[in-house]
Design goal:
Largest sheet: 5 strands, mixed
Oligomer: single chain
Length: 626
Amino acid sequence: MGLSSALASAMSGLRANQAALSIVSSNVANSQTPGYVAQTPNQIEVTTGDFGSTAKTTGVSRDIDSYVQNQLRTETGGSGYADQMANILKQLQSVYGTPGNSGTLENALNDFTSSLQALSTSAGSSSAQRVALAAAQALATQLNVTTKGIQSLRSNVEQDLGTSSQAANAALNQIADINTKLQGLAPTDPSAATLMDQRDQAINSLSKYVDVRVTTDGSNQANIYTTTGIQLVGAGLASQFSFASVGALSATSLYNIDPTKSGVGALTIKLPNGSSIDVAGNNVVSSGQIAADLKLRDQTLVQAQNQVDQLAATMSSALSDKTTAGTTVAGPPAGFDIDLAGAQPGNTVNITYTDSTNTQRQVTLVNVTDPTALPLPNGTNANPVQIGINFSGGMGAIAAALNGALPGSHLSFSPAPSPATATTLRVTDDNSGLAKVTAASSSKTVSSLASGGPQLPLFTDGGQALYTGAITGSGSQMTGLAGRIAVNTQLTADPTRLSIYSTSPVTPTGDTTRSDYLYSQLTSAVYSYSPQTGLGSASQPFTGSVSNYLQQFLSVQANASTQATALQQGQSVVVSTLQAKFNSTSSVNLDSEMSNLIQLQNAYAANAHVMSVVQSMMNTLIQAQG
């Protein structure tokens, strides 16, 4: 090797050492900088004909494990989802209160049933009547308070959707801006490495709010999609979330895919091509805090409201509705005559029959006077099947509609023949032997406090209107009932009606018929509950007493909160583990950097020594020639 080659090699070594020292210095200086990824110099050997081999620095590499990074982002989205679910469900438990304590639904119901039981031991006592009335009012108030708490949580989630959308947009814009700055820069450019660190931090922030899938193309542009395939960032352009809040929500503020019918804030995403997509209606996001907010607002907390509304509705109907069995028709064909006179909107007729496979089935006819509410929805294999029909339309029209609505059931509907009244409907089998009607009854809401029977319209919808279960095109009367339920103002004015159920003849002093009935209806009578409560299914609804139902849905909610907390804790461990694994390969290791620094110093000294020797040799040659 000639002196020129040796000098060139030494000089290239010094330049390479200088570049490497600069990177080590940057690594050490940024060892505590969040998101900074350790860098390594890219050095190659260059061979030339005149100077032999020299070292050349071509840029830097980021010490990053892309697989672990992608996993970390996925689990960060899961953690954002789990955190929000656990947080809100924990607050929901606070709304329900601690079981056994005062100020809870369970305690309020127990106090009311206990007061009814006490009333039966002293039916004529005005003191016992006032205590029972006060307990009923406390129960109604507790239902009101519970509804207010649930809707307050929904309103908070609604507000968080706006905040989360803004945070996601900030991250999206930052990613798109960095993509633009990276255009034209090689991935190994030191300035590009710094920008990629910043971009990774922005993507990590975004992953807390929505699920992300990231790809990087040859021009170092990050393209980001949701797992459903909606592009969030690409080609320097970012999609944008837009949220139009409606403010505080109520029980009737429900999501509808038709924006003209929706009662909640609309969350949309505007794509770079200008098109806009409904995030909730198209399931754009499946993880992250925004996905949790949507599920809580439109499903989880709505179901919680359905549960307390069902409780309020069942109690109201259990105390005020009078069920009358149909009159047997000997046949053939055999069946029952059912009197529909006095039925109010929402009142029902229940029919039980066995089909051709000897399976017991039920049909519930609901008095629906608003045609825009029809047909009533039924889940798959619903039992009972609900059929909405206007009871005031005449027996002929009702029979024709029912015969058309139940094809293949082998049931036959017709106006009951004379001497039955014009409001009597007959249901029989079709005399084919393939079906048998085993029971039929009608349930009607009693409006009078002294109707002659033990039924009592104790609870009302808002203090005046009776609860009948009416269904209209705008929804069911049951929706939000727990927030409106109140004790009948007529009963408040005259608490003696808790015992007096007849004025002609007058109920005897000390008669316990009504108080016994009210107590029995709330504690031992069995009812069927809507699958919208999350209990049971359309084909096998949950059945039980009012107390059983309350305990069941409170238990379900408590279990859901416990599971959400467990998931949150599990996700936290997963994220921490992945973060530690990512840091072990991508963060600055000061021990390694110090070791590299020593090696570089030694290499620098060696190259400097070579240059010193070459200089000495050249001086010797020059002197010799002189």
